[in-house]
Specification:
The protein is 56% helix and 15% strand. With 214 residues, it is α+β, with helices and mostly antiparallel strands. A hairpin with a 3-residue loop joins strand 1 (41-49) and strand 2 (53-65).
Amino acid sequence: NLYGIARQTITYSCWRQCIHPDDVSQLERLLKNMARAKSEFSICFRIIHPEFGIRHIQAAATIVYGEDNRPLRYVGMNWDVTGVKEAELALNLAKQKAEEASQIKGEFVANMSHEIRTPLNAALGAAQLLQNTDLSAVQKKYTNMIKNSGESLLAIVNDILDFSKIESGHTNVALNIFNIKDTAEKIATILSPQAGAKGLEFILHIDKNVPTFV
């Protein structure tokens, strides 16, 4: 039933004709090595079924020897594993597509991050130049807000690039000392306009016991 041939016609040559042409040499080489080493074997190969086409067969066998120590016949089992092989193929194909999609996404994120940084750096440069001019106290305050917000956005863009590097396995984690009070003040600068737009006042209070650097 597995091979689509009548029981009475099963011979070695008949069986061999059922094997997929690309798998014959490997299979025969394994059988010869098995006979020489007097060992068991297990192999998966393809056959061409007269009705169902290409099927995957898993085979396990051993050799029965005569009194003169010559091999008499193979004894073993064959079973159809086509469903398993097709599932493995589908899974590998899905994995390949997922990896390709992830690579495309990573490249897109990296390219977009670079594109965003170009005008952002220009805006930060303009804010820096503006700070070097004669400004009123209010203008200086707004200019500092522009500069701090731009630097925060630039840090976010750099973090996005870091995530892309993490996904591709090209990043190293480093411990760096930073000024926690300065960071908190920059966050407050970003959030204050949003609070003000809602009629709220955003107040930052840093406890005296909080260290400056962590």
